[in-house]
Amino acid sequence: MAIFKDRDTSHSDRSAWDRKRHRHLVEESIKKNLGDIIAEESIIGQSKDKKIKIPIRGIKEYQFIYGKNAGGTGTGVGGEKKGQVVGKANTQQGMGAGQAGNDPGEDVYETEITVEELTDYLFEDLQLPHMERKKFAQLELEYKFKRSGFQHKGIQPRLNKKRTMIEKLKRQQMIKRDQEDTNADQVHERIPFHRDDLRYSRIKEDIRKHSNAIIICIMDTSGSMDQTKKYLARSFYFLLYQFVRWKYEHVEVAFIAHTTVAHEVNEDDFFHRGEAGGTYISSGYAKALEIIEQRYNPAVWNIYIFHCSDGDNWSEDNSKAVALVEELCTVSNLFGYGEINTATMYGSSMRKEYDKYLSLDNFVMVNMNSKADIWPAFKKLLAKESTPRGNS
Amino acid sequence: MTTYNMDELEEWDAKIEKLVGDVGLNCYTQHFEICSYEDMLCYEAYLGIPSHYPHWSFGKAYERQKSFYQYNFVGLPYELVINSDPCIAYLMQDNTLLTQILTMAHVYAHNDFFKNNRLFKRDTRANMAVDMFKTHANRIREYIQDPSIGPEKVERILDAAHGLKFQMSRYGEAKEPDKKQRAEEVTKAIPERLQGDLLGFLAERGNLIEWERDLINIVRQETMYFIPQLETKIMNEGWASYWHYQLLNQLNLPQGLHLEFLKRHNLVVCPHPGKINPYFVGFKIFEYLAKQPGGRDQIMAIRAEDRDQSFIRRYLNQELCETLQLFSYGIQGDDIVITEVSNEDGWKTIRDHFADSVGLGGIPMIQPSVVDKGTLVLEHICDDRELELKYAQETIKYVADLWGGKVDLRTQVNKDVKIISCSEAKLVTVHS
Question: Does residue A44 have a pLDDT over 60?
Answer without folding.
Answer: no
